[in-house]
Design brief:
The protein is an all-alpha fold. Helix content is about 75%, strand content about 0%.
C-alpha cells in the first residue's frame, strides 16, 4: 500500500469506479456490439454487467478477509511468494497492455480529428507526460480531480446522447433474439467494457467504510449501463448495425451531426470528444497509478514516483507497435476474448482457494 494515503471516502472512491470504464469503453462499444450481436447488440451491455458481479463480489470478500491488503498483496499471502508474484506480475502487465491498447486508439482519434499534421511522437509525448505527472501526484489527487470532473462529464454525455436519440429508427434495433446463448456469448464479447472495474481490487484497502463497496459498485454499474446503452442504441438505431461497423469510433459519429447554432458549435461531436479526452486522461492516470502500486507490492520497490515514470517509458515503447486501426481492432478482439481471465477469474480464484482450502480447514480445526 501507499503509505501516503490514509483512506478514501465513498465520494472519492466512487468516481474511480466509473471514470476508468467510461473513458476506455465508450467510443468503440457500438462497433463491437453490432459486430458480435447484431441489431440487438445493446442488450449485451446488461448481460456483461451481470457477468462482472461474481468477480466484484470476490474482491469485496477478499478485502473483508484481509483488511488493509490489496489484491496483489492478497495473492502473495494466498498463493505464496513465488506464484503470488508471478500472478501479480501477469495482472500488472495485463493492465499495462490494456492501457496501452486503448491509448493507441485514442491517439489515432486525436490525429484524425484534431491534429492530422502533428507528428505522432509529439502527441504521444504530450499525453504520456500529462498522464505520468498526474499519476505521480498520487491516487488521492486523482480521486479528487475525478470527483470534480465526473458529474459535468456525465451530464454532457447524457444530454448529447438524449438529443441524438430523436434520430433513432426502431426498425434498426430489431429483431431481438430470444436465445439465452446469444446473450451469454454477446455478454462475454462485450465484457471488456467492465474489465477496469476489477482494478478496484488494488485500491479497495483505502475505502472507508468497506461495507459501502457493494453499494458503490452497484451504482457504478447502473450508471455505466445507462451511458453505454444510450450511445449503443443511438449508434445502431441511427445507422443500422451493418453500417455502424464501417466507423472507427461509432459513438462519436452518433452525435457528430447534431447542430447547436445557438451555442456557436458546428458539431456536437467536438463537445463529446473534448469531454471524453478529459475523462480518459484521468482514467489513464488512475490505471498508471494502480500499476505502480501493484508493482510496488510485487517487487518491493518503495519509490512510487519512480515507478510511475518507468511505467510511462514502458508504455512509450509499447505504443510504437500497433501501426494501423486494423491492428488496434485485432488487439481489442484479443482483450475481449482473454482479458476477463485476468481481471475477474484471478480474484475469484483467490477467493475460492481461500474459502475452500484455508477458511474451511480453520473451521474444521476449531
Amino acid at each position: 500500500m501507499n503509505n501516503d494515503i490514509k483512506y478514501l471516502g465513498p465520494m472519492l472512491f466512487f468516481p474511480l469506479l466509473v471514470i476508468p470504464p467510461l473513458s476506455y469503453g465508450l467510443l468503440n462499444l457500438p462497433y463491437y456490439a453490432a459486430q458480435y450481436m447484431g441489431a440487438d447488440g445493446y442488450l449485451g451491455i446488461p448481460a456483461a454487467a451481470l457477468m462482472a458481479v461474481p468477480g466484484l463480489a470476490a474482491i469485496y470478500w477478499l478485502a473483508k478477509w484481509f483488511p488493509g491488503q490489496s489484491l496483489t498483496k492478497q495473492g502473495l499471502i494466498i498463493l505464496g511468494p513465488i506464484f503470488g508474484r508471478m500472478m501479480g506480475f501477469i495482472y500488472a502487465a495485463s493492465t499495462l497492455f490494456l492501457l496501452t491498447t486503448f491509448a493507441r486508439d485514442l491517439i489515432n482519434m486525436i490525429a484524425a480529428y484534431f491534429n492530422p499534421r502533428t507528428p505522432y511522437s509529439i502527441i504521444v509525448l504530450i499525453l504520456l507526460f500529462a498522464e505520468a505527472y498526474l499519476a505521480s501526484r498520487g491516487i488521492e489527487t486523482i480521486a479528487r480531480i475525478s470527483s470534480f470532473l465526473l458529474l459535468p462529464g456525465l451530464v454532457i454525455m447524457l444530454i448529447l446522447g438524449a438529443l441524438g436519440l430523436k434520430n433513432v429508427s426502431i426498425s434498426h434495433l430489431l429483431p431481438i433474439e430470444t436465445s439465452v446463448l446469444h446473450y451469454i456469448e454477446g455478454g462475454l464479447s462485450l465484457f471488456y467494457i467492465f474489465f477496469l472495474l476489477g482494478v478496484s481490487g488494488i485500491i479497495i484497502p483505502y475505502l472507508r467504510p468497506l461495507k459501502s463497496f457493494p453499494r458503490l459498485v452497484g451504482l457504478a454499474l447502473v450508471i455505466l449501463i445507462i451511458v453505454f446503452s444510450i450511445f449503443t442504441i443511438g449508434s445502431i438505431g441511427v445507422y443500422g448495425y451493418g453500417h455502424v461497423q464501417r466507423f472507427a469510433w461509432p459513438a462519436l459519429e452518433f452525435v457528430h451531426a447534431i447542430d447547436f447554432p445557438y451555442l456557436l458549435l458546428e458539431q456536437a461531436g467536438l463537445l463529446l470528444t473534448l469531454d471524453w479526452l478529459a475523462i480518459i486522461l484521468i482514467g489513464s492516470a488512475f490505471l498508471c497509478s494502480t500499476i505502480a502500486m501493484g508493482s510496488n507490492e510485487i517487487f518491493g520497490i518503495r519509490k512510487y514516483k519512480h515507478l510511475v515514470w518507468i511505467i510511462a517509458v514502458l508504455k512509450l515503447f509499447l505504443l510504437l507497435y500497433p501501426q494501423t486501426t486494423a491492428e488496434i481492432k485485432w488487439l481489442f478482439h484479443q482483450i475481449a476474448k482473454y482479458g476477463w481471465y485476468i481481471f475477474y477469474v484471478y480474484p475469484f480464484l483467490l477467493w475460492f482457494i481461500e474459502l475452500y482450502f484455508v477458511r474451511r480447514r480453520e473451521i474444521n480445526a476449531a
